[in-house]
Design brief:
Keywords: Hydrolase
Shape: elongated
GO biological process, one term: tetrahydrofolate biosynthetic process
Protein name: GTP cyclohydrolase FolE2
CATH architecture of the largest domain: Roll
Function: Converts GTP to 7,8-dihydroneopterin triphosphate.
Distance between the termini: 74 Å
Largest sheet: 8 strands, antiparallel
CATH class of the largest domain: Alpha Beta
Bound molecules: guanosine-5'-triphosphate
CATH superfamily of the largest domain: Urate Oxidase
EC number: 3.5.4.16
Oligomer: single chain
Number of helices: 11
Length: about 375
């Protein structure tokens, strides 16, 4: 065995071909491929391919299962995102947010009752980037997050992940938004049945210039009976014995509340706050007695879109844990072919003169 290896090695040394000879051999192969493609295809070129993967037209097309990059190989790999400032395209401007949007994984959340729920969560994580740096080490946004992924998620945990971002990505500011659907068991109005209501919730935390902002976003879905239409229907009944029904619609309020102080604001607290302000939440389990109750509940609580944001504003002003807030309501009209909307904000956090053109569309919930 050794003898053969030695012989091959010495022959290789002795008969080391010149570049011209190699070129001629390639030309021979090329001519064979043109003249007799099946004979060319029958040749085992794998050794040649492995030796010369970079030769034009001779790239290895088989996935190299056994290839493992070692440290020396990795050191040769291009690392553009950490390249010099001269590689920057466009303005050498600071970037406020650069990162990954919508990576999903199951995360644990603790309910107000202490139960732990594991929920599919969509994560958006970003950091700021200095004007002189080409790019971030993008994969660290996920890798740093995964280092915490087994723990229960609350704002304290998000704070810890943000610290990891700032350290691991050598950045100044960082932001995380977690989006998930939070289930709560709801009892029907009169039949005593119950079923799960799912709430679109988002926890958002930003660390900027050393200041932390924590925000909970919640979409609350309810029925809005038009007060004007209700009175017009009653008028038709009273004046002309004419049956008429007021229009009502599936409506959505998006509550965004910045947390203040150390008092906790549970998702359950926010939902209860909404239900107290606007009791006509859409129902999960409905028998006839529930449906009748819902009609009565709507009759007792007709609201315009202006009423909706003001009722929720009143509730949020009374919440100790909530600081700045924004309430957006969208009444997806059954009278009109368009929606009635309103936006009410308190404080600097949500003060805006311009809104995303698609913001209001995002308030439309599928059934
Ligand atoms: N910065 C940046 N990276 C991107 C983008 N799109 C894809 N990537 C890729 O994200 C990959 C992972 O980036 P890194 O975190 O720097 O990977 P790495 O250098 O192996 O990781 P470290 O060992 O942490 O340095 C790179 O291959 C990038 O090309 C982008 O728009 N910006």
């Amino acid at each position: 065995m050794n003898m053969i290896t030695t012989k091959i090695a010495s022959e290789t040394e002795v008969s080391k071909p010149t570049t011209d000879e190699a070129q001629a051999a390639l030309e021979t192969l090329r001519r064979l491929a043109e003249a007799d493609p099946s004979s060319a295809a029958a040749l085992d070129l794998s050794a040649l391919m492995a030796l010369q993967p970079r030769a034009q037209g001779m790239l290895n097309r088989d996935y190299p299962e056994d290839f493992t990059p070692d440290a020396q190989y990795k050191a040769t790999m291009p690392d553009l995102q950490n390249g010099p400032e001269s590689l920057i395209k466009g303005a050498h401007a600071e970037i406020q947010h650069v990162g990954i949007s919508n990576f999903r994984l199951p995360l644990k959340f603790r309910t107000r009752d202490g139960e732990v729920l594991t929920l599919e969560t969509s994560v958006t994580g970003s950091v700021s980037l200095e004007a002189t740096k080409k790019g971030i080490n993008m994969s660290r946004i996920m890798r740093s997050f995964y280092a915490h992924a087994e723990d229960c998620f609350d704002f304290e945990k998000i704070d810890a992940v943000l610290d990891s971002y700032i350290t691991d990505l050598e950045s100044f500011d960082a932001r995380i938004q977690l989006r998930f659907r939070y289930p709560m068991l709801k009892t029907s109005l009169r039949s005593g049945l119950s079923g799960y209501q799912y709430y679109d919730v988002s926890f958002e935390m930003l660390k900027q210039d050393g200041v932390s902002t924590r925000v909970i976003h919640l979409d609350y879905v309810y029925s809005s009976t038009c007060p004007c239409s209700l009175e017009l229907s009653e008028h038709a009944r009273r004046e002309r014995a004419q049956i008429a029904t007021p229009h009502s619609q599936r409506s959505v309020a998006r509550i965004s509340a910045a947390l203040e102080g150390d008092a906790p604001l549970w998702i359950e607290d926010l939902v209860e706050m909404c239900a107290t302000a606007i009791p006509t939440e859409t129902q999960v389990m409905v028998k006839r007695e529930d449906e009748q109750a819902f009609a009565e509940l709507n009759g007792a609580n007709p609201i315009f879109v202006e009423d909706a944001v003001r009722l929720l504003c009143e509730a949020l002003e009374g919440a100790q844990a909530a600081g700045d807030f924004r309430v957006i309501a969208s009444h997806q009209e059954s009278l009109h072919s368009h929606d009635a909307i309103s936006i009410l904000t308190r404080g600097e956090t949500f003060a805006q003169s311009s809104y995303d053109p698609r913001l209001l569309e995002s308030l439309i919930h599928r059934g």
